[in-house]
Amino acid sequence: MLIFNPSLGGDPELSMFLYDDSGLGLLLQDLFSGIRIKNIGPEALAVLADVTHIHIVEKDGDTVIRDYLAAVRKVSDVKALVR
Fold it and tell me: What are phi and psi of 70, to 5 degrees?
């Protein structure tokens, strides 16, 4: 599960979490915007390698604003995708 403050806009058009072996991740919410995740630990990387989806929860304080599933995909280099 990934929990973070609400993103701008409505419900995501595309829900995909991309990550690489360096500990970087990118939560895509549509073709033109995403949220960068840094410092994914080795334990979390091992878990990500074994799952096909991750539960995303957007919260404002104690209030859940939005929750959804995002497909998980390992890529060779997250930085190359955001240049």
Answer: -125, 135
Q: What is the pTM of this model?
A: 0.84
* Tokens representing residue 8 in the block: 């701008």
Q: pLDDT for 16-51, tens place per residue? A: 999 999 999 999 888 777 888 999 999 999 999 999
Structure tokens at 16: 């995909």
- Torsion sign, CA atoms 12, 31, 8, 51: positive
Give the pair of three-digit tokens for residue 63.
């209030």
The encoded tokens of residue 77 equal 């280099």
DSSP character for 48?
H
For residue 54, give both structure tokens: 């991750």
Local structure of residue 49 (DSSP, 8 states): T
